[in-house]
Design a protein that fits this description.
single chain, 108 residues, mainly alpha, 5 helices, flat
């Protein structure tokens, strides 16, 4: 029985591209990734919850397994280059404050 789900445009593009590369239908690509996701969640060597805790600085990176550390680094890098408007605004505000890095009295 077929089911309809909503997927963001960005994820749908990634899904279509992966399906094309692997010569799968979109439905078969979704099923493939679902199986991989379930396997990853059941793995004793990998816990995305632990990776999330490390990303929030609630767990030391040293306590992660090798697979978790690899996932941590990939996710950390992705988040650092794709930060949202809230973070951009916070950095802009920080740059305007006295004592911010690069601020000198002579610059006024």
């Amino acid at each position: 029985m077929a089911h309809t789900i909503r997927i963001s445009d960005e994820e749908m593009k990634i899904l279509r591209d992966a399906a094309k590369v692997h010569s799968r239908s979109i439905a078969k690509q979704v099923e493939h990734w679902l199986r991989l996701g379930r396997a990853a969640e059941r793995s004793d060597e990998y816990s995305f919850e632990r990776v999330e805790l490390a990303l929030k600085a609630q767990l030391s990176i040293d306590e992660l397994t090798g697979a978790e550390q690899e996932a941590y680094m990939k996710e950390f890098h992705k988040r650092m280059i794709n930060f949202g408007p809230e973070i951009e605004a916070a950095y802009a505000k920080l740059g305007d404050e006295a004592r911010a890095v690069g601020y000198f009295e002579d610059d006024i």
